[in-house]
Amino acid sequence: MLVYCCLWRIITRLQKRGQKEKSVDFTTLMLRLQETGKQLDEDKDKSGDAYIYAAAQTLEAILGEDTPIRMQGLILDNLVKKSKKDQDFIKSGTFKAFLSAFPLCISSPDSYSAPKIGLISYASRPCNEGNFPNDSEKAYLFLTQSYIATAVNEPFIGYELKRERMQSDVLDSPEQLKTQRLVQEEIRHLKTQGCQHIILLAHAYGDRRINRAADNNSSLIPTEFLEEVFQTFPDINIYPMVRDVFPATRLRERGYSEAAFEILQAGDHSGFPRSVKADYFRDLIPVYTFATLHAIQAEERLQSGFCIYFLVSDRKVSNINWTERARQHLINPDSDSRIHPCLLAVLRGLHFIEAERGVYKSQLSPVLDPFSWISPNTVEEAGEVKVLHTRRKGQVLLNYRAVLTHVSQVLHRK
């Protein structure tokens, strides 16, 4: 909490100085130095590195509310025990990964049709789940990350895609998930930035995969929420979406200038719906697939597979025109609308702006899953640490991010 308050004060002072000089935008980079690399589970508690790592991950996320920020780690032992060539490779890899903190340009010949497009990626995660006597109600940590794509003519016709603010909130009951105040605030914020098309990309912790029970995969897009959003923002084109990631083995050689391949039209996904058990009132329509071809030796995150985006079309909303606008732009690209390639350009850009590998062989390699903060591999990546372990109750975890969310709301007087 002390480190966060100190860094927050530094950032706010820099922003005030920037306002005086009429140059407010800047990007913050964090370099995390640690002595050793990954350790065995029994050694984590003794060294304390897991707690420092969780704290650093939380600081990066919570400071994202005020500034575009990116953190990278550097293991000091590797700079001592490795050869000079390996040391240079480690250093360059660490600093190339910082490129993901900055905006990028992605081509789209029809970008003039939608000068500004917003995207809100959001997720929920339990933050007081347990088997304690007074735990009758759960609380949820609610997270959002916004992006803005702005049409540009240089260096080519397309979009400049940049990361906007990251927000978090603690919800005291499951009922608050149905209204999602934070998402509506972000829609209002993107509207003030000039966005007339906004993609809502929902990810719920613990949801089933898409090819299981389809209606259970959209717990963050309930009908009540869609109804309220459409009524509150009738002049904005809203695209409620979910996605799923399927790791796969690459079956052929990747070309020198080839980074990925795509399925661009809903009609080309015609075989997929046969495996989806859809609700009568709600359709999950596959509209875009981004498939990566980059294979690496990593057990935690396979970088070869398919990321499929689904449009959620709910016929329970009171006005069918609200959902049909989204279907027209994303399902029927052959119509007069030129919005379809613009929306896909934004989804495509997510896989490149979140890649942390830099440029390799004159090419920026995309990442399969752009939202690692939503599905972390360890509790430390989620900003949680073990504070107690009992034989009968199991592990007790402390959620750093839920704690700092309360501190942030005090500092921002929310």
Secondary structure blueprint with pairings:
Layout: H1 2-20, E1 28-34, H2 41-47, H3 49-63, E2 69-75, H4 78-81, H5 84-96, E3 104-107, E4 116-126, E5 140-152, E6 158-171, H6 181-192, E7 197-204, H7 223-232, E8 237-247, E9 260-263, E10 282-293, E11 304-314, H8 320-331, H9 339-353, E12 359-360, E13 363-364, E14 384-390, E15 394-399, H10 400-411
Parallel strand pairs: 1-2, 4-7, 7-8
Antiparallel strand pairs: 3-6, 4-5, 5-6, 8-11, 9-10, 10-11, 12-13, 14-15
Helix pairs in contact: 3-10
Give an overview of the whole structure.
The protein has 414 residues and is α+β, with helices and mostly antiparallel strands. The chain folds into 2 domains: 2-100 and 378-411, no CATH class; 103-364, 2-Layer Sandwich (Nucleotidyltransferase, domain 5), CATH 3.30.420. The protein has helices at 2-20, 41-47, 49-63, 78-81, 84-96, 181-192, 223-232, 320-331, 339-353, 400-411; strands at residues 28-34, 69-75, 104-107, 116-126, 140-152, 158-171, 197-204, 237-247, 260-263, 282-293, 304-314, 359-360, 363-364, 384-390, 394-399. The strands form 4 sheets. Strands 3-6-5-4-7-8-11-10-9 form a 9-stranded mixed beta sheet. Helix 3 (49-63) packs parallel to helix 10 (400-411). The longest helix is centred in the first third of the chain and has 19 residues, at 2-20. The chain starts with a helix and ends with a helix.
